[in-house]
Amino acid sequence: MGILKKGFLSVVFLSIVHLATAGEGMWLPLLLKSLNEGEMQSLGMKMTAEDIYSVNNSSLKDAIVHFGGFCTSEVISPDGLMLTNHHCGYGQIQSHSTVENNLLKNGFWAMSKKEELPNPGLFATFIDRIDDVSDRALEGVTKEMSDTERQSMIDQNLELIKGGYRLREFQDVRIRPFYQGNQYFAFVTTTFNDVRLVGTPPESIGKFGSDTDNWVFPRHTGDFALFRIYSSPDNQPAEYSEENVPYKPKHFLPISLDGVEEDDFTLVFGFPGRTNQYLPGVAVKQTIEKLNPAKIKIRDTALKIIDKYMRGDEAVRLQYASKFARVANYWKKWIGENQGLKATNALDKKAKFEERYIKSAKDPSAKKLLADFETAYQNIEELALTRDYYQEVAIRNIELLNMQRYIRNLVSRYENNGEDEYNNYKGRLNNYLQNFYKNYRPNIDQEVFAALTELYSQEVDAQFIPSDFKKSAPLFKAKNSYKALADLIYSKSIFTNKDAVMELLSKNPEEAISIIKEDPAYQLGKSWESLYNEKVAAPYSSQKNDIDSLQRVYMASLIETFPNERFYPDANSTMRVTYGQVKGYKPRDAVCYTPISYLDGVIEKYVPGDYEFDVPQKLISLFDSKDYGQYTDKTGKVPVCFIGTNHTTGGNSGSPAIDAYGNLVGLNFDRVWEGTMSDINYDPSICRNIMVDARYILFIVDKFAGADHLIKEMKLVRPKTRAGSSTGSGIINKQKSRR
Ligand code: ARG
Ligand code: GLU
Fold first, then answer.
1. CA separation (Å) from 160 to 138, 177, 184, 669?
2. Residue 208 domain flag
3. Cα Rg for the chain, rounded, in angstroms?
């Protein structure tokens, strides 16, 4: 084929396929200059790439924090005040709550720094710099190498690269693969370990709408909480100490009182967890047709049982609310994901894309690569499905079996490392067990056990069913055999009973271990795990490695085949920037959502006494008297949430939504249901992220909580008003470095 023709094909391709449309993409901050700045400015951004990410000057990135390693947060005052989601701080808020002093229910506002609450174990990580280390990481790697040889070469290289960094105490360097292992970037981090709780609204604001509204727009949730970073008196990271002082950050985000309106530019800065944008169609098909339906069905079964008990008993509701929310969260997400993948014809899109890829690829092996994917995904299907079944049934949803993982750990510590290690682990286990039993109802769990083990046995191949299921063989002949199995285990196991477990752990290790080993829950958990490890996990991971290396070759080939396209790397919990515009959407025929919700909508949804839609009296009074202060938009109403085309995922919770000038306008906390398939197939027509409007946060802190000392330490700005007037420039207002 002549050069000309090839060139022609890729030009045609370019005009048809946009791998990254405006809104799509989670970009590396250090590459914004070369890949994104132009587009960002054309969407309305008034900053430069250097204002967002700079190694030498303070920039937006210096205000962005990885919160506990699982969420994002941002610094919003010169005194280290930090904003994140209520659902990100939930664990901390819960741990400070007691029946008498229920922070979840009543909210909490430290009225002075002395009242701020320490959170052992919670940490806040800044990114000091990001380096492209691809060349050095891949040095010596050849195409001929086996996967193992390749990986060990890379591992050696990474050690060398890490060793080359001179790090201060509390600094670390982490190197992560990008583009499925075709590139490597190093992240130098600084971590602070003294992070205190400053304020949180009551659940009736912070979790308003609960599971019914989760993943849904229109939304009216004030999903935020405030923390503060503390440092040593010389502004360095330090373990918790009374001597510590509020940290002076390199940068903090001013907050805009002007907010945003439809079509305004926004960027979201944070730590998205995981996406799969470059899967072959066959993998997406497997997700849609096999894996998602299986996981949905399992959780559906468990949730129905728990819901039944929660509705019948207020005490159960309290005990199970948080667990229920956790299980329901991804259950609902997968349902939305499947619907969205179908609604946007994701499989057709993938098929057309692959057809064009084969035509355009210079490498004749393109066709074979896709055929190899077909075979590999066919081969792994049963293992992948069984793996999901095991993890959902034996690990995530049957509580008794989940807790057995810790018990097995205890036993193996004793057997491998002796009594000291046993006692050490037992000490740490105590906390977990106290929490576990505080919220545990064996009768509910037993019913879940019966239903899920039955489902497991129906859906997976006989070779993956633990023989322990059949130990109660005579019982199995009876009609409700899994119910019988559950009866047997839950009536005989001591692990359904807190007192018995505490007594067990007070015995000497030898004796305790021999009792544990006789326990039917321990025995079932252990034999099921061994069976799983041998017959599922091991072959799965070897096949998955093969798929990963196909995926790496595919990614490299895509980049080579379409040199003029911008490819963004899948999310991997590293710092990213995504940007787009405030926009409504049309989820269904004749339905159209405008992008901003208001306090009026909170009141519309109000159901007195309801656990999801109750509204605090104080908020109702503020609404009735229209006591809104400066927190309205030009409609004169208080905006609560808004949506945009920013491409986000789990881990972006707590990420700041930033306006064209670098000011905070919102707090990311969710996506719309129809668009949760953006993890696999972003589609600008229905993918929207959901943010709390910064003015709602300020309104709650100021008018609802009366914590105006917190408002005073923030910097409130009016960039649009200023830009519109003859005096101000509206340009990002940078704080001087205070280090
Ligand atoms: N859907 C949001 C996020 O993953 C919020 C989850 C917390 N809220 C809840 N009702 N479960 O993860
Ligand atoms: N709530 C999610 C989180 O915890 C963010 C929503 C999403 O998945 O986009 O990170």
1. 12, 16, 14, 38
2. no
3. 27
**Can you give the length of the chain in residues?**
739
How far is 647 from 644, CA to CA, in rounded Å?
A: 9
Distances (CA, A) of 226 to 74, 77, 194, 209: 10, 11, 14, 21
Phi and psi, residue 151, nearest 5°: -65, -40
DSSP assignment of 543-569, as one string?
Answer: HHHHHHHHHHHHHHHHHHH-TTS---P
Catalytic (active site) residue 231: no
Cis peptide before 218, with omega less than 30 degrees from 0?
yes
Q: Within 13 A of 552's CA, how many CA atoms are on the CB side?
A: 17
Q: How confident is the model at residue 14 (pLDDT cuts 50, 70, 90)?
A: very low
Answer left, alpha or beta for residue 221, where phi above 0 means left and psi between -120 and 50 means alpha: beta
Place of tokens 């039944």: 308
CA–CA separation, 736 vs 251, rounded Å? 7
| Whether the CB of 650 sits within 6 Å of ligand 2 | yes
Asked about 87 being catalytic, the answer comes back as yes
**Which ligand lies nearest to the CA atom of residue 649 in the structure?**
2
Could you tell me where the DSSP H helices lie in 72-167? 86-95, 103-106, 134-137, 147-163
Specify which residues 109 forms β-bridges with.
199
d(CA 86, CA 104): 10
Q: Which ligand is nearest to the CA of 87?
A: 1
Share of residues in the chain with pLDDT > 90 (%)? 88
Can you give 28-87 as a three-state secondary structure string? CHHHHHHHCHHHHHHCCCCCCHHHHCCCCCCCHHHHEEEECCCEEEEECCCCCEEEECHH
Instruction: Work out the mean pLDDT of the chain and round it to a whole number.
Output: 93
536 inside domain: yes
Q: Is the pLDDT of residue 414 over 60?
A: yes
255-256 and 716-717 strand pairing: parallel
Q: How far is it, in rounded angstroms, from Cα 694 to Cα 683?
A: 27
| Contacts with 128 (C-beta within 8 Å, 6 or more apart), sequence order | 171, 188, 189, 190
The predicted model gives 607-636 an average pLDDT of: 96
**What is the CA(556)–ligand 2 centre distance, in A?**
29
Residues 66, 86, 87, 251: which is the catalytic one?
Answer: 87
Whether the full predicted model's pTM is greater than 0.85, yes or no, is yes
Specify whether the backbone of 691 is left (phi greater than 0), alpha (psi in -120 to 50) or beta: beta
What angle do helix axes 399-417 and 419-438 make, rounded to 10 degrees? 170
| H or E segment and range at residue 588 | strand 585-588
State how far the Cα of 308 lies from the Cα of 316, in Å rounded to an integer: 10
Which residue's alpha carbon is at the smallest distance from atom 7 of ligand 1?
87
Domain count, the chain: 1
Whose CA is closest to 131, among 86, 184, 84, 92?
A: 184
344 lies in a domain?
yes
Compute, in angstroms, the gap from residue 675 CA to the centroid of ligand 2: 12
Q: From CA 28, how far away is CA 49, in angstroms rounded?
A: 11
Q: Which residues contact 93 (CB under 8 A, 6 or more apart)?
A: 86, 103, 104, 108, 197, 200, 225
In which domain, by residue range, is 519 found? Answer: 281-550
Concatenating the DSSP letter of every residue in 629-675 gives TT---TTSS-EEEEEE-----TT-TTPEEE-TTS-EEEEEEEE-GGG
pLDDT at 157: 98
User: Is 264 a known active-site residue?
Assistant: no
Nearest CA to ligand 1 atom 12: 650
Give Cβ neighbours of residue 269 (< 8 Å, ≥ 6 apart). Answer: 29, 52, 60, 61, 64, 72, 74, 575, 576, 577, 655, 656, 658
Q: Is residue 289 part of a domain?
A: yes
Dihedral sign computed on CA atoms, order 409, 411, 417, 421? positive
- Tell me which residue of 128, 71, 181, 138 sits closest to 570, measured CA to CA: 181
